[in-house]
Amino acid sequence: MAASSSVGRVLTLCKQFQNVIRISSSINTQHCSTTLIKYQPLLYREKSPLAALSGYSPVSSVGQCRALHTTINRRGLEEFFDLPENWGETNVKSGAPWTAKQLRTKSNEDLHKLWYVLLKEKNLLLTLEQEARRQRVQMPSPERSKKVERSMIRLETVVKERETALRLLQTGQEKARPGAWRRNIFGYVYWYRFKEYAIPWHMNRRYKRKRFFTPKFVQPHIRLRIEQHLREKARKATLDKKTQSILKEKFPHVKVSAS
Amino acid sequence: MTTLKRLQNNYLISYVSKPVGAMPVTRLLYPLFQLGNPQLRILRPNWFLTLVRPGKEQPPDTVQFRIPMEMTKCDVKNYLEKIYNVPVGAVRTRIQFGSNKKRNHLNQKVKQPDYKVAYVQLAQGQTFTFPDIFPEKERMPAEGSMEEMQEKFMEDEKQRQKLDPRRGGVTEWFGL
């Protein structure tokens, strides 16, 4: 992955750091990560999952620089819990959720990392919620769960957008999962999405029981169904017309928008 | 281009969203595995673990999790090792049946959801005790704030409810 990024990146670690760290392409990334271990105590939650509190901002620079990854996970199971100073608080401050617009500016690697940051945050909040229920105490700032959930959904949509764009450019396929329009036993035509099987369809007993055709005795009912639907539509239209005429009688001066 | 490589394997990992009202858990359709296929890799896993305090006494190296039903022991092991960097020894799982006994005001049975519990034993002799996340903290409300006024009001009310201290604890029930 380090080789893939030819354009260099200079990362500002967090707001506490004023000096910018630059690594030349000759130095190994692993070697760089060891030199930064001494900064560990300050890097507690430098990668906040919510956008407003994030002090992490990659800045592209001129010259050949390697991408640097400094988040060394040393906390293990402690990451299921909040920072110790937040234990027992009734309100824990958190920033705004990530918007799709903000996420679209980030690279794929950043989105991948953000997903895991959000995942860990969600695990943290779930443990907190469960423990609060156990101790019969209110969970501090429950709105965080929704924020993380929404951020994750938006991240997913952005990634899907990128994947569809790439697929359209490379193969011309609109849908990721192949499918077809098929008629089921009840006469309805629907988009059937294909499923992967190890055997061909004519050897698949469960698949053959599905019957993607309408039997002859169902055919008359399709017409009856269509008739019912048209009657329903007509009833609705006449009801609309009636209400409009009554309103027109009551309030002749009111202008009705053309719908 | 990493996305190019992903295209061949993952086009069938499609997501189907559950109906409105349920938690937006996306249903994954995994590509079929046949002998000789490459190892399935999941990018952006949609599984969330909840660390819970054990109801029964557990050995010091055991951590108890609530995991989604779709996860297996291998999944839990890989999840903790790769994402949390926690050395995992053994994992045992069981499915907890959620009761269907309680009834609501319409006498309909209400089902508590089932969930899977994983008991993870840490490797390398590590131990874990579930910490006390809600310690009692001395909270002084901010000056001039709503909380301070409310607290003062409550204290005054309590003072008013108390009996005359000169009565020495005797209740008002007696005439004198």
Automatic annotation (TrEMBL), chain A:
<dbReference type="InterPro" id="IPR038340">
    <property type="entry name" value="MRP-L47_sf"/>
</dbReference>
<dbReference type="GO" id="GO:0032543">
    <property type="term" value="P:mitochondrial translation"/>
</dbReference>
<dbReference type="InterPro" id="IPR010729">
    <property type="entry name" value="Ribosomal_uL29_mit"/>
</dbReference>
<dbReference type="GO" id="GO:0003735">
    <property type="term" value="F:structural constituent of ribosome"/>
</dbReference>
<keyword id="KW-0496">Mitochondrion</keyword>
<keyword id="KW-0689">Ribosomal protein</keyword>
<keyword id="KW-0687">Ribonucleoprotein</keyword>
<protein>
    <recommendedName>
        <fullName>Large ribosomal subunit protein uL29m</fullName>
    </recommendedName>
</protein>
<dbReference type="GO" id="GO:0005762">
    <property type="term" value="C:mitochondrial large ribosomal subunit"/>
</dbReference>
<comment type="similarity">
    <text>Belongs to the universal ribosomal protein uL29 family.</text>
</comment>
<dbReference type="Pfam" id="PF06984">
    <property type="entry name" value="MRP-L47"/>
</dbReference>
UniProtKB/TrEMBL annotation, chain B:
<feature type="region of interest" description="Disordered">
    <location>
        <begin position="147"/>
        <end position="176"/>
    </location>
</feature>
<comment type="similarity">
    <text>Belongs to the universal ribosomal protein uL23 family.</text>
</comment>
<dbReference type="GO" id="GO:0003735">
    <property type="term" value="F:structural constituent of ribosome"/>
</dbReference>
<keyword id="KW-0687">Ribonucleoprotein</keyword>
<dbReference type="GO" id="GO:0032543">
    <property type="term" value="P:mitochondrial translation"/>
</dbReference>
<dbReference type="InterPro" id="IPR012677">
    <property type="entry name" value="Nucleotide-bd_a/b_plait_sf"/>
</dbReference>
<dbReference type="InterPro" id="IPR012678">
    <property type="entry name" value="Ribosomal_uL23/eL15/eS24_sf"/>
</dbReference>
<keyword id="KW-0496">Mitochondrion</keyword>
<dbReference type="GO" id="GO:0005762">
    <property type="term" value="C:mitochondrial large ribosomal subunit"/>
</dbReference>
<dbReference type="Pfam" id="PF00276">
    <property type="entry name" value="Ribosomal_L23"/>
</dbReference>
<keyword id="KW-0689">Ribosomal protein</keyword>
<protein>
    <recommendedName>
        <fullName>Large ribosomal subunit protein uL23m</fullName>
    </recommendedName>
</protein>
<feature type="compositionally biased region" description="Basic and acidic residues">
    <location>
        <begin position="149"/>
        <end position="169"/>
    </location>
</feature>
<dbReference type="InterPro" id="IPR013025">
    <property type="entry name" value="Ribosomal_uL23-like"/>
</dbReference>
